[in-house]
Amino acid sequence: MNLALLLPEIALLATAIIVIFVDLFVRSKWLLSRLSLAGLVVSGAFAAAMWGGRYPMLFNNMLAVDNFAIFFKLLFIGIAFLVVLASADYVSKFERFQGEYYALLLLAAVGMMLMAATADLISLYLSVELTSISLYALVGFLKDNRSSEAALKYLLLGALASGILLYGMALVFGFTGRTQLGEIAAYLMSMPPRFLFGSPALLVGIILMVSGFGFKIAAVPFQMWVPDVYEGAPTPVTAYLSVGSKAAGFAIVLRVFFSAFGFAPIGFSWGLIFAALAAISMTIGNIAAIPQTNIKRMLGYSSIAQAGYLMVGLATVGFSAPSPISSFRDLSGQSGVLFFLASYALTNLGAFIAVIAISNKLNSDAIADYSGIAKQSPLMALALTLCLISLIGMPPAAGFMAKFYLFSSAVRYGLLWLVVIAVINSVISAYYYLRVVKVMWFGQPVAEGKVASTGGLRLALVLCCLGVLAIGVLPDAVMRIAQFASRMFTF
Could you give the angle at which helices 266-289 and 200-216 cross, rounded to 10 degrees? Predict the structure, then answer.
C-alpha cells in the first residue's frame, strides 16, 4: 500500500491537528487562518501533482486514485480555501472557538475528498459520516437559539438519512454478497435482466440508497432541513454546505451509480428516478424561493432548484448506460455534471461571500435591508449581481454554459421534456434573483457608510467573480478537464 497517494488527505488532517494545538498556545488567532490556508495549499499541490497519472487502488480496492477523485479533491480544496478566506470577517462571533472552527472545516474537507475517492460501500459510509459529523458541529457554532435549532434539525434528519442509506447498502450487499463497487457491477452483469428486476431486495436497496443520497444533495422530498439550516448556520458554514456538501454528494452518487449500476437496463431505471426527482426538485425549489424575505433562506431554496438541474445530468448518465455486452460509454452526462459543479461552486460561493460582507454591515439577512446597497458599495453589489445572474443561467456568466452543456447532453438521450421543465424553471428563478438585484440598485439605502470587509474576503470574492466570468467566456479549458476526469473513471 502506497500511503503517498493519500498525501492530500494526510496533509489536511495534519493541518487540522496543528491548528488545534496552536490555538492552545497563541493569542494571535489570525495565525490559525494562515495555517489553514497553508495546509490547503500544500494539500492542493499534492493533489495537482497526481493529476493525469495511473495509480493502484488503496486498502484492498476501497479507495480509488483516479482523475475523477483528483478533480473533486482539487474542487473541495479550492472551496475550503475560499471559505477560510471569507471567514475572516465572521469568526469574531465565536472568537474563543476559532481553532475548532478551522479544524472542523479541514476535517469536513478530508471527508469530502474521501467521499469522491471511495470505491467500496464500507469506505463510502465512513467518509459520509466523517463529513456529516464535522458539518453538524459547524452548523451549531454560533450557539444561539437559531443556530442550535438548525444543528439539531440537521443532526436528527442526517441520522435518519444515514440509517436509510445504510439499510439500502445492506440490501445491496445481501443480494450480491459484495461491497466493492466494481465487484457489485460484475456480479449484476452476470445475472439475467429478468432475475435482476424480479428481486425486491436489490430494487428496494437502490431506492433506499437514492433516498439517503437525496438528503446529501438536498433533493425533494429530502430537502426539509435546507431552509432552516441555511438560515441558522454561520454564513460561511452555509456557503460551505451549499457547495461543498452538495458537490460531495453528487461525486459519490456518480461514483456509486456509474461504477456499480451503470449498465442497462438498471441504469435506465435509476435514471428515470433521478429525472422525476429533478423535475420535482427544481419546480418546488424555485416556487418556494419566490416568497422568501430572508436572503439565506432564498438561496437555500435556490440550492434545491440547482440540485434539480444537476440531477438532469444524473438522469442523462442513467439513460446513456450501455448494455452489459457493450464497451461504449458516453461520458457527456458525467462531464456535464462536473462542469456544472465547478461553475456552481464559484457562483454560489461568490454570492454567499457578498452576503457575508453586506449582512455584517446591515446586521440583517432581510432582502428588504439590501435596499440601495449599490449606492454605498457598487463593487460589492456588482459582484452579487454577477453571481445571481450566473445562478439564473444568463450569459456571459458561467451558469449559462453549465446549463447549456448539461441540457444539450440530456436532449441527445430523449430527455427533451425534462429540459423544457428546466428551462421554464430557469425563467421562474429569474423573478426572485432579479428582485434582489432591483432592491440593491434601485432602492434607497437603509444604512449609512460603505460595506467594510477584510482583504481576505475581498480576495475570495474577486477570485469567485473572475472564475465565474472566465468559465462563462472561455469554458473550453474547464470542460476539457471535466471530460478528462470522467474518461479516467475507475470501474
Answer: 30
